[in-house]
Amino acid sequence: MPVGPGRVEGRVVVLESPHQLERVMRGDILVVPTLDPSWIPVFTRVAGLVVEMGGTLSHGSIIAREYGLPTVANIPGITRILKTGERVLLDGSSGTLRRLQTES
């Protein structure tokens, strides 16, 4: 579901907990199970957000929009489907997420 408008391409970093924020690099697309205020410190480093559970009116989604982050949410199982290091195209306006081919 579309949560925060905008379109961005980048490297995925999948995290289960905000205690892993040191793994996030500037420009990454953060993939998380849920959004809550504990994720906010990394919002200035990421290019976009993908959230497994949540909606447009959740606190985290509202904050993501305030930061201007392209965001999609409510994608069951996405933290198990995507792997850190993959590249994706995230479109927060349409609510779509597409894996990109990596160069070999």
User: Main β-sheet, in a few words?
Assistant: 7 strands, mixed
The percentage helix is: 10-25%
Low-confidence parts lasting 5 or more residues at pLDDT below 50? Answer: none
Q: Nearest-angstrom radius of gyration?
A: 12 Å
Determine the strand fraction and express it as a percent band: 25-35%
How many helices? The count is 2
Instruction: Name the structural class.
Output: mainly beta
How many discrete domains? 1
CATH T-level fold name: Glucose Oxidase, domain 1
Shape category: globular
Taken in chain order, the helices and strands follow as EEEEHEHEE
How many distinct beta strands?
A: 7
- Overall average pLDDT: 93
**CA-to-CA gap between the ends?**
32 Å
User: Class in CATH?
Assistant: Alpha Beta
The spatial strand order of the largest sheet comes to 1-5-4-3-2-6-7
CATH superfamily: Phosphohistidine domain
Using the 3D structure, state the CATH architecture. Answer: 3-Layer(bba) Sandwich
What does this structure look like?
It contains 2 helices and 7 strands, in the order ββββαβαββ. The chain is mostly beta strands and 104 residues long. The chain has one domain: Glucose Oxidase, domain 1, CATH 3.50.30.10. α1 links the parallel β4 (48-51) and β5. The chain starts with a strand and ends in a 5-residue tail after the last strand. The model has no long low-confidence stretch (mean pLDDT 93).
